[in-house]
Amino acid sequence: MAAAKKGRRSSGSQGYPGRALAVILIALVALTGGIFLSGDRTPRLGIDLAGGVSITLQAKPNQGGAVTKANMNTAVSIISNRVNGLGVSEAEVQTEGSKNIIVNIPKGTNADQAEKQVGTTAQLFFRQVLAADMGVPAATPKPTPSGSATPSGTPSTTPSGTATPKSSATPSGTPSASSTAQGRAVTGALTSGVNKAPTPLPTTPPAADPGTSAGSSTSSSDVSVPADLQAKFAALDCSNDAARHAITEGAKPTQKVIACGKEGGVWEKFVLGPSLIDGKRISGASAAFDTQQGNGWVVNLNFDSKGASQFTKVTGDLSSAADPNNRFAIDLDGNVQSAPVVHQALTGGSAQISGSFKQGDAEDLANVLKYGSLPLAFDTIDRTTVSAALGGEQLHGGLIAGAVGLALVVLYMFAYYRGLSLVAIASLLVSAGLTYTIMCLLGRAIGFALNLPAVAGAIVAIGITADSFIVFFERIRDGLREGRSLQPAVAVGWPRARRTILVSDFVSFLAAAVLYVVTVGKVRGFAFTLGLTTLLDVAVVFLFTMPLMTILARRKFFAQGHKWSGLDPKSLGVKAPLRRVRRTHSSETKEA
Amino acid sequence: MSKLGTLGHRLHRGEVSYDFVGKRKLWYGVSILITVAAIVGLAVNGLKLGIEFSGGAVFTTHTSSVSVSEAQDRIAGDTAGHHATIQKLGNGGLRIQVSDIDTTTSKQVQQKISEDLKIPTSKIDAEIVGPSWGKEISKKALQGLIIFLVLVVIYLAIAFEWRMAAAALVALLHDITITTGVYAIVGFEVTPGTVIGLLTILGYSLYDTVVVFDGLKEATRGITKQNQKTYSELANRSLNGTLVRSINTTVVALLPVAALLFIGGGLLGAGVLNDIALALFVGLTAGAYSSIFIATPIVADLKEREPQMRALHKRVLAKRASDAQKAKEAEARGEDPDAAADADPQDDDEATASAAAGVIAPRAQGGASRTQPGSRGRGGRNRPSGKRR
């Protein structure tokens, strides 16, 4: 039939139904294998379904800003972004009383990591280094602990980060790497990341000599170190946790402070000037793996326009200062993350923090920086498990009801579509299998947690998914009513059904995409689920239902319209033998 | 087999049809009535905001042997009509959160809880908690919604046409208003769950409308090249053609929700699930209803105002009049009606006439017009001619 050929040409997968089926079945098997390998055999459940850990934070009154309602609310929204940036982890954050914040995290989340994330104040300042020394005074005679191929053999304090001229990223690694004790990473590179073209360094002096920077204490007129700080600085032992913790207490951005930093496993201590640029000027942060310079995991920062101009000016000023005052410390909550040397003004509006991060650390830091610093400092005062908000019996009842509902759907489909319902039910099962396994795997990958609204969404998704099959089946049956035999009916019905499915699923996907991009929190989680189920719907119809139907259309049982096939011409109102249809009618205005 | 199956083929062949478009005024009226009721309910009852939006009080007991569901039962009447969320803490205590109450009410509630749980008041800490669903989330959700609606209208205007976009939007607002009204009337709390339920409904409503419109678009392709049917008739025909799909999809979508609502909520007492299930049930029903009874008739209404469609309308009427004339003459000559049938679009005439009835002069019984005299009078109505025009 002409019409049949036309239909076949326009649907690519129809020629090879077996291949498409194989693709989706392999995907299903692979995903199933994935959940067994990863051990996540059930999706992570939200706090309303599974309970979790509740962390209570208390604002420290004497640090940071005042404990006001506005500051508390800001802190809540920042913390909630930190623990639920993707919107899929179902964490809840709320204030309690006037100075507490409760963070509820669903079961299965790493509570320690979460606690660290929510509690980190993340106040970031860029300060000038006034003085630097090895962090552990007693360790002076000892050569560098990392003991790798360092030419000088000096106890490297590794101040050798180079600030390169705005263009170059790659070459900056070369000189500095050679001068560091650590073979694997340039320990503090401040790179303007806008233009990555590997041009040679025009004026870069040799990277700071570790010996000089370690030995020299300070100088220059405007960078004097007050006597009391000098004394504290001399006494400071960075390897001592308590001492390190003590110096971060009460540190004010407007004052000179002492601080510790660990780069490449070696402690270095600093006297730092007042804050030159506030971390609030950071407009974005992301973790990246630096392959070009071998810095390992780094955190890239972008400044807003004001921050960018400040940064240009400050780096310009610093580049002309004497060592170590030409160094720039990135001070996060009182700890120096890195302290690179600046050689000339950096104009790109972006900076990079490097410093032997592990992937997780870099991601956490980027996450924390991205959502800004907390206006208040917090202590964790309580951490306890909480049970599900939805009683176990309720959930149980819900599950039974859901099962009954599904059984009814199967019955209804069978009653109406007979043999065809097997195709629909198999498709629903494949769809459910894919959704389930993907949700399980996403639990670990991005912290996806299934909560009650998501379950409700999944139930509605049954309807939308089944609709795709129903549209398709009705098209096929229309084809039969128009007098075609089954195979051509499938071939002609499919392009029509396909268009309907794509057009309507596009609307769902649009909703999901827009809501995901624009919103935060639980709405984002919903958008994610919606988008996922919509994509799976399309995948299942294209790769499973249609090929299966094409194959089954060749079977006698269906092709000859067996009474139980759901395609019985009699019950469709077609009287066999089928009457010829005029070709012109194949494109007729008819509806499924 | 099933009656619906037979109905399917009869609908397909236009033997049975319901005049959705013709009787649109009736359904507009019904919808307006329901919508007004929903708005009144909303105005009178207002929406009860859950703890996630309004904050509330949290009561913490240090130790308790009472289980969560037991506690739920015992304090059911204590919370001044507000919803209580109860969680068991790691140390054996209970955390009871009650939405939307202030300090004074909180004291009374604390008192009552202490009596019902038989724990001295001093062993229950009470604190006021802030909303966990901040203004920011609501604001961004609304922002996202507006951006989405603008985009979807643009998309529908391009993929279909602006009239369909407008009609889809009306249907959407209709569904959302009704569902929100039900929230208010039944009086359940607006939690993030219900907001998400609402978004789900929004998605479904649009989805369903688009599926119906897709059929409509196909049915009305090349409409100006013929003079047998008006836009409204074709629209009605397409609705009837998609009716089986609409019914099946709605049934399949509603069955699990209904099970959740009636079995889960009614028999097994899954309280919180009830809220969501009811919202979804109402929303899905409204979504399916509005696609057929509201959205498509609005498109037809708007289309019929186009000059092209008006001209078509006139042509159709003229053609019909002459056909009727011919038929009479043929009858008078005693010709075999079957012979005439193959040459002319007789099968369709039935549906056409019935649908036309709705447009030309709204008649109470669109479907019955098949038996109308004048244009009828020929036999062989159920002939499996297999052709439509």
TrEMBL record, chain A:
Q: Which Pfam families match?
A: Sec_GG, SecD_1st, SecD_SecF_C, SecDF_P1_head
Spans through the membrane: 20-39, 395-415, 422-446, 452-473, 501-520, 526-553
Extract the GO molecular function terms from the UniProt entry: protein-transporting ATPase activity
What positions does the domain Protein translocase subunit SecDF P1 occupy?
72-129
**Every SecDF P1 head subdomain domain range:** 275-375
Among PANTHER family, the record links this protein to: PROTEIN TRANSLOCASE SUBUNIT SECD (PTHR30081:SF1), PROTEIN-EXPORT MEMBRANE PROTEIN SEC (PTHR30081)
Protein known as: Protein translocase subunit SecD
TrEMBL record, chain B:
Report residue spans for region: Disordered: 316-389
Enumerate the Pfam families for this protein: Sec_GG, SecD_SecF_C
User: How does this chain sit within the bilayer?
Assistant: Multi-pass membrane protein
Where primarily located? membrane
Q: Which residues form the Protein export membrane protein SecD/SecF C-terminal domain?
A: 113-304
Annotated transmembrane regions? 26-44, 141-160, 247-270, 276-300
Report any one BP term from Gene Ontology: intracellular protein transmembrane transport
Compositional bias segments (type: Basic and acidic residues): 320-336
Acidic residues composition bias: residue spans: 337-351
Q: Which GO terms describe its molecular function?
A: protein-transporting ATPase activity
Keyword Transmembrane applies: yes
Composition bias of kind Basic residues appears in 378-389
Location in the cell: Cell membrane
What keywords does the record list, in alphabetical order? Cell membrane, Membrane, Protein transport, Translocation, Transmembrane, Transmembrane helix, Transport
Q: Which GO terms describe its cellular component?
A: plasma membrane
Family to which the UniProt record says this protein belongs: Belongs to the SecD/SecF family. SecF subfamily.
What is known about its subunit structure? Forms a complex with SecD. Part of the essential Sec protein translocation apparatus which comprises SecA, SecYEG and auxiliary proteins SecDF. Other proteins may also be involved.
NCBIfam families tied to this protein = 2A0604s01, transloc_SecF
Q: What does this protein do?
A: Part of the Sec protein translocase complex. Interacts with the SecYEG preprotein conducting channel. SecDF uses the proton motive force (PMF) to complete protein translocation after the ATP-dependent function of SecA.
What is the name of the protein in this document?
A: Protein-export membrane protein SecF
Q: Which organism is it from?
A: Actinacidiphila cocklensis
Q: What is the gene called?
A: secF
